[in-house]
């Protein structure tokens, strides 16, 4: 069995163990401590001039070398893996991180923040900041309690809608078109290098269809709008939150597949099928690895349709 498979299986087992222990915060902290050595090795990989994506840990992050410092995209889930990332970064540049852009507020993207020095510029969507403020008041609110230190890492600059800016000499477009994975997503487009860091607007390593975080007001139709917006940027490389970088053609295909899947789900819903019947009809499979406990796109679409109509599937 490949090392990565062992890691994925072990993580899945530990995540389900954690779910079972969720009533005991102290135990959850202890279990998190055993989870982190199992995350895969951090590797910093060049993409384009001054742009790197980082694989390993519990998801992807990004590094962009600016004029005076480094712009980091997301923080890793665990402090030790985030520290490992900083050690790897030191092998490619003497510059230190001065800015962090967060793609959204989920634990696998923000919990590693305390590995970075305090006092950095931290950029996030307004709603992601609100989630993080909730996290400070209730460390369990994202399901995976971070270090209490995270209170020193609240976003210092927020974005509400798509914004063109310049970070440390690097032209950047921060893209937000509305609720998608969550209501506080930001994709980062580097027009000079034609690279998009999409966060969890794209998650090919988890499953073939979008992940919609309904607990954070995500939306499948909003997801389609966001994917259309990042496709309109005409980038060459799209770095997902989880999985290998994608071509523009692959992103376009994922959007098409997701739109078709939603239409199929809607038809089955309107025919009065239960969610179980729809899952069976569409060969819906559980998400991969540590995400296996999260609902699939068929399940979240059912929940959306029920909320939209105010009732379950109509009687046959
Ligand atoms: Zn994620």
Describe the structure.
A hairpin with a 4-residue loop joins β10 (187-190) and β11. α1 runs antiparallel to α2, α6 (220-232) runs antiparallel to α7 (248-270) and α7 (248-270) crosses α9 (297-309). The protein has nine helices and twelve strands. By secondary structure, it is an alpha/beta fold. The protein is globular, with a radius of gyration of 19 Å. The model is unreliable at 1-34 (pLDDT under 50). Strands 1-2-3-4-5-6-7 form a seven-stranded mixed beta sheet. Strands 8-9-10-11-12 form a five-stranded mixed beta sheet. The protein has a single domain, classed as Ribonuclease Z/Hydroxyacylglutathione hydrolase-like (Metallo-beta-lactamase, Chain A, 4-Layer Sandwich), CATH 3.60.15.10. It has helices at 3-20, 25-35, 79-90, 107-110, 126-137, 220-232, 248-270, 275-281, 297-309; strands spanning 40-48, 51-57, 61-65, 70-73, 97-101, 121-125, 157-159, 163-167, 170-175, 187-190, 195-199, 237-240. The longest helix is centred in the last third of the chain and has 23 residues, at 248-270. The structure holds zinc ion. The site of zinc ion has 7 residues, from α4.
